[in-house]
């Protein structure tokens, strides 16, 4: 290995985490062989030049997220994260299973709540969830799907086993970086692709569009799909434009829509055009001022009633937030057993429910060794990592937990797995997570082979969120066997149409040139 | 205007467009090519070269040789560097007629050709740079040259070459059919987003090929480029207003376009190579006819002399 990896094993030893690239003794794992080979050939100058050019491409292409009112490129690290085929098969199965269970759970919660009657989950837990919306109780959404798009966050613990960290079934974001990262890597580190087969991610927008069209209200032949964005100031606005562009559909804001007679229309230059499927990228609270926040200017009054009447499909369905409440998360393995009659393929991270007295007492005694998270937070907001927190912070946290035990969960500190990441002038181990994306079209759950790997850029940090100084890595899922069978049919031979008329390179001007020079 | 100047302008248009098209094709195919096993890489590189209109010297021709042949070889009229060099050479000969903006941008481009690393990563950047430069050249041509006869010759060259390049883009499909998706074919032409917006959910080879071949509104489609060329020819020679065409070039271009536009088929994909062949032939014939008529009247005079 080159100097770039000089201090790597020492740093990896310090963290005690599972390293994805190197087995102990700094031997590259088999799946990383090609990547290690490519990196070995590069000098520090090469690596930094390529990293710089990748960052510049991102800025040029507008692949940014909004941070405190400023557009920033999402840092992409030059070392990809590689997942071998056999591990992916398991992940894929586990993610799809979870999505099916959550789908069943949501259908049940907004209907008869048999899951409560059967004593799997306490009623109080559901009804106290901030995202349980009574406004959408008692109807099945048009198209019959609630979790069209989901992102299930998984991490690897110190033994290298995958575990689910949280479910995102409201508005999971980040898939645009999966698409853009792959394009940037193909140009930034072409050597690493080599001859191995990496499963492509580019079909995601087509899969998404076909799933959205499939779940349109019944009776619509050629459904019109739109993406609903809160507007250009949203931190994920880039993603909204990218997805709308790649699906070839309109990107609308709330003010472009009108509801009339339980149907939704958009204002176009050719008059009002009916909208059948809305891919909603705004939070439920802002969606419909008639039902939720009355002061919201982002949504469109009447959407929820239109959905209730079956005049429009909203993806993801309103009210999904109850399923990614972190306290409900702790029940998901039970939900999988209850609804699907299967054992969970991927385990949860051990979670303490603070409403249970014994658990709460244990947690309060050991706050300094645990991670405590608010149940409805996203983006790493409000999360406290015990070992890193000061005494005052822990004391403040203790008071808040005692005041609102329903609002918090606690988990042991997981040493997330690490992948080499460029920092300054060498590679160091940095912690990563993974968000695979799943698309559910009602019949089938398709998991995008790849996903968003987020990486904490500070040494030892466990927080990977982009809003807190995280970056990302391209995620490669290796194919088992060649997906496209190698062609045996002989190709039609290609006729060479040579360029004949190529003045003035042809000889006649060369002659003239010499003539002119002679004079 | 002088025939010699008209010819120079015609070829500036052609060469700049050729550099642009080659850069687009190389940029997209390099990605695919780079992932192939060595053996296959070689044969695909040779076939790609053939589509671009040149023959490999020997069997050792592989990826590095392809980069040289399509991007950096200054002595070949198929390469980007060769085309841009020839465009600049033509501008130098017509320097008093072209605007200084156009001349300078071509000249700067010519001197920038050497400032790139010639490996795979460097070639990606080179292609991007070429696209930027050619866009600048055509922008300056459109905004700083009067839209008179001289500009018409420039646009005529550009549209003919554009039809030819799009035909070659479509032909590359045969080369990499194992891994070449219609998405890449559209990306070559910069048509991906436009295609998606017009086609909604209808994806696939057939629709993509149809779009690049027949769309009447997308500027890089063959039908669009050929109608552009036809329009220029009509303006250059307004004499044939009532019956028939005495202008060979117009006849050839018009026939090629109408054949595509009014042709009815159930299986476009299998006929595609044939169509591409026809388009490329028409372009080269039209180009010859234009040279005969406007640039090289010596032949015609000699023939007239014989009769009298």
Topology (SSEs and partners):
The complex is a heterodimer of chains A (519) and B (308).
Chain A (H helix, E strand, L loop, with lengths): L7 H8 L6 E2 L3 E2 L4 H8 L3 H18 L2 E4 L2 E4 L7 E3 L1 H25 L4 H4 L5 H5 L21 E8 L5 E7 L6 H14 L1 H4 L10 H11 L10 E4 L8 H11 L2 E3 L4 E4 L2 E6 L2 E5 L1 E4 L22 H6 L4 E3 L10 H4 L2 H9 L6 E2 L3 E2 L3 H9 L4 E5 L9 E2 L5 H13 L4 E5 L5 E6 L2 E10 L1 E4 L4 E3 L4 E5 L13 E4 L1 E3 L29 H12 L1
Parallel strand pairs in A: 5-26, 7-15, 8-9, 8-13, 13-14
Antiparallel strand pairs in A: 1-2, 3-4, 6-7, 6-22, 10-11, 11-12, 16-19, 17-18, 17-19, 20-21, 21-24, 22-23, 24-25
Helix pairs in contact in A: 3-7, 4-13
Chain B lengths: L2 H32 L3 H14 L11 H10 L7 H14 L6 H13 L7 H25 L4 H27 L6 H7 L3 H8 L5 H10 L7 H15 L11 H15 L5 H28 L1 H11 L1
Helix pairs in contact in B: 1-3, 1-4, 1-6, 1-7, 1-8, 2-3, 2-7, 4-5, 5-6, 7-11, 7-13, 8-10, 11-12, 12-13, 13-14
Could you name the key traits of this structure?
heterodimer, A: 519 residues, alpha+beta, 5-stranded mixed β-sheet, 4-stranded parallel β-sheet, 16 helices, B: 308 residues, mainly alpha, 0% strand, disordered C terminus
Compact summary:
The complex is a heterodimer of chains A (519) and B (308). Chain A contains 16 helices and 26 strands.
Report on this model:
The complex is a heterodimer of chains A (519) and B (308). Chain A is 31% helix and 21% strand. Chain A is built from 16 helices and 26 strands. In chain A, strands 15-7-6-22-23 form a five-stranded mixed β-sheet. Chain A has a four-stranded parallel β-sheet with strand order 9-8-13-14. A four-stranded antiparallel β-sheet of chain A has the order 16-19-17-18, with helices on one face. In chain A, strand 8, helix 10 (237-247) and strand 9 form a beta-alpha-beta unit. The radius of gyration of chain A is 26 Å and the shape is globular. In chain A, 44% of the residues are buried. Chain B is an all-alpha fold. Helices cover 74% and strands 0% of the residues of chain B. In chain B, helix 7 (149-175) packs antiparallel against helix 11 (222-236). The longest helix of chain B is centred in the N-terminal third of the chain and has 32 residues, at 3-34. Chain A binds chain B through residues 50, 53, 186-188, 190-191, 193-195, 202, 206, 209-210, 213, 222, 245-249, 484, 486-487, 491-492, 494-505, and chain B through 7, 11, 30-31, 34-37, 47, 50-51, 53-55, 75, 77-78, 82, 86, 89-90, 93, 120-121, 124-125, 171, 174-175, 177-179, 181, 183, 193, 195-201, 203, 273, 277, 280-281, 284, 287-288, 291.
């Amino acid at each position: 290995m080159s100097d770039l990896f000089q201090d790597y094993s020492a740093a990896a030893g310090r963290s005690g985490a599972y390293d994805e690239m190197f087995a102990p003794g700094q031997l590259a794992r088999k799946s990383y062989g090609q990547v290690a080979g490519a990196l070995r050939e590069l000098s520090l100058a090469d690596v930094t030049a390529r990293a710089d050019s990748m960052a510049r491409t991102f800025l040029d292409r507008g692949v940014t997220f909004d941070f405190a009112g400023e557009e920033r490129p999402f840092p992409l690290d030059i070392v990809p994260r590689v997942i071998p085929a056999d591990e992916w098969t398991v992940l894929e199965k586990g993610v799809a299973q979870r999505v099916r269970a959550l789908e069943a759970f949501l259908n049940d919660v907004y209907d008869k709540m048999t899951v409560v009657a059967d004593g799997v989950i306490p009623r109080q837990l559901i009804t106290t969830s901030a995202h349980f919306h009574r406004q959408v109780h008692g109807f099945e959404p048009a198209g019959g799907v609630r979790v069209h798009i989901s992102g299930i966050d998984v991490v690897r613990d110190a033994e290298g086993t995958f575990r689910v960290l949280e479910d995102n079934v409201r508005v999971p974001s980040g898939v645009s970086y999966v698409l853009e990262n792959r394009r940037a890597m193909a140009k930034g580190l072409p050597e690493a692709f080599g001859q191995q087969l990496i499963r492509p991610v580019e079909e995601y927008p087509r899969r998404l569009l076909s799933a959205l069209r499939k779940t349109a209200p019944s009776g619509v032949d050629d459904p019109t799909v739109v993406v609903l964005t809160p507007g250009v100031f949203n931190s994920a606005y880039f993603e909204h434009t990218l997805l709308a562009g790649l699906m070839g559909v309109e990107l609308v804001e709330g003010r472009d829509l009108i509801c009339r007679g339980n149907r939704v229309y958009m204002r176009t230059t050719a008059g009002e055009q009916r909208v059948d499927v809305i891919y909603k990228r705004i939070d439920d609270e802002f969606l419909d001022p008639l039902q939720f926040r009355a002061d919201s200017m982002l949504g469109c009054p009447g959407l929820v009633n239109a959905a209730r009447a079956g005049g429009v499909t909203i993806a993801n369905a309103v009210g999904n937030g109850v399923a990614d409440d972190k306290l409900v998360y702790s029940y998901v393995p039970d939900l999988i057993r209850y609804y699907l009659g299967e054992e969970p393929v991927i385990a949860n991270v051990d979670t303490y429910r603070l409403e249970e007295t014994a658990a709460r007492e244990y947690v309060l005694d050991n706050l300094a060794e645990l991670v405590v998270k608010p149940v409805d937070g996203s983006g790493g907001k409000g999360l406290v990592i015990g070992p890193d927190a000061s005494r005052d912070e822990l004391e403040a946290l203790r008071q808040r937990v005692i005041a609102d035990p329903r609002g918090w969960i606690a988990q042991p500190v997981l040493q997330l797995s690490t992948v080499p990441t460029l920092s300054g002038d060498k590679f160091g181990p940095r912690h990563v997570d993974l968000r695979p994306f799943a698309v559910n079209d009602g019949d089938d759950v398709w998991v995008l082979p790849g996903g968003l790997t987020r990486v904490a850029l500070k040494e030892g940090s466990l927080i990977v969120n982009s809003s807190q100084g995280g970056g990302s890595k391209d995620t490669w899922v290796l194919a088992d066997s060649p997906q496209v069978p190698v062609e045996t049919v002989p190709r039609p031979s290609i006729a060479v149409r040579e360029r004949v008329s190529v003045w003035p390179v042809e000889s006649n001007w060369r002659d003239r040139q010499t003539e002119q020079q002679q004079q | 205007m002088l025939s010699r100047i008209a010819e120079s302008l015609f070829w500036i248009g052609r060469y700049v467009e050729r550099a642009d098209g080659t850069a687009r094709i190389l940029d997209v195919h390099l990605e695919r090519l780079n992932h192939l096993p060595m053996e296959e890489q070689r044969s695909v590189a040779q076939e790609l070269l053939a589509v671009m209109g040149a023959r490999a010297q020997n069997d050792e021709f592989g990826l590095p040789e392809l980069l040289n042949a399509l991007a950096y070889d200054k002595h070949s009229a198929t390469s980007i560097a060769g085309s841009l060099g020839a465009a600049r050479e033509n501008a130098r000969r017509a320097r008093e007629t072209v605007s200084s903006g156009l001349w300078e941008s071509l000249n700067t481009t010519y001197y920038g050709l050497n400032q790139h690393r010639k490996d795979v990563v460097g070639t990606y950047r080179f292609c991007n740079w070429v696209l930027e430069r050619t866009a600048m050249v055509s922008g300056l041509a459109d905004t700083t040259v009067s839209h008179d006869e001289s500009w018409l010759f420039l646009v005529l060259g550009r549209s003919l070459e554009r039809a030819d390049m799009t035909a070659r883009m479509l032909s590359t499909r045969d080369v990499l059919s194992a891994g070449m998706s219609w998405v890449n074919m559209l990306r070559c032409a910069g048509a991906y987003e436009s295609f998606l917006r017009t086609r909604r959910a209808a994806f696939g080879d057939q629709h993509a090929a149809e779009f690049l071949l027949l769309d009447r509104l997308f500027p890089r489609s063959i039908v669009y480029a050929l109608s552009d060329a036809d329009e220029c020819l009509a303006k250059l020679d307004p004499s044939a207003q009532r019956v028939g065409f005495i202008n060979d070039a117009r006849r050839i271009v018009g026939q090629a376009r109408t054949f595509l536009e009014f042709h009815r088929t159930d299986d476009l994909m299998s006929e595609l190579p044939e169509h591409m062949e026809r388009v490329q032939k028409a372009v080269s014939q039209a180009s010859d006819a234009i040279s005969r008529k406007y640039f090289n009247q010596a032949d015609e005079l000699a023939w007239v002399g014989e009769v009298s």
